[in-house]
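Hallway conversation turned thread

IA: we were arguing at lunch whether anyone had actually written out Shikimate dehydrogenase end to end. Turns out nobody had. So, for the record, here is the sequence (243 residues) and right after it the structure tokens. Reply here if something looks off.
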Amino acid sequence: MKTYGLIGYPLSHSFSKGFFTRKFEEEHIAGCQYETFPIPAITELPALLAQHPGLCGLNVTIPYKEQVIPYLDELSDAAANIGAVNCIRLKDGKKKGFNTDVIGFRNSLQPLLQPHHNRALVLGTGGAAKAVMYALQEMNISFTVASRTPGNGTVAYNSLDKAAMEAHTLIINTTPLGMYPNVDACPDIPYDFITSRHLLYDLVYNPAETLFLQKGAAQGAAIKNGHEMLILQAEASWDIWNG
């Protein structure tokens, strides 16, 4: 039995387990299972791997996307550049880290882009933001990073004026603001300056339409949540494990 799984903590709601269990059933993939491994500290990873010698691949979620790197033998170029790993291939005794968030985000965003979506505003500075920035660089889209607290090349939400909002027609929320159960939260940007030329993309997928997306839609903007990105990054993991 080939075993794949997810490490993180806590793992109360795992998209990955449901996705892969369904995939194995619907595509008649025999001899495979997907498990969740909630480990309270990343230092427990070597013991986990020793207990499960049949593991062929792992997904990595918060809070270990960055912490896992010292435990790996090798990194893909994207993972090394981003400094975050969400997929590990276990093959021939080697542990190689990849970042499939980049693939999922890029392939989900690309079909929505209009020629005028050439400057992006990235909301947030965490690991997800780094993957988004890497993908934007790949697509030759310039970007500005905004967060609650400015500094280190980041502008503050409250410094965004009409000109800044009009110049950045692609706005990407990489923060967890608005995620269930805190559905009344959203990044504190001036939504009044959003127009029908804007495209708002939220990495959050639960609820399907966050307050961030609702406010954009109310101004006539195109909107997209992170559900397809999750599916595409999961499929990319499968390709890496079996490629």
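OS: looked through it. Residues 227-242 form the longest helix (16 residues).
IA: good, adding that to the notes. The chain has a mean pLDDT of 96.
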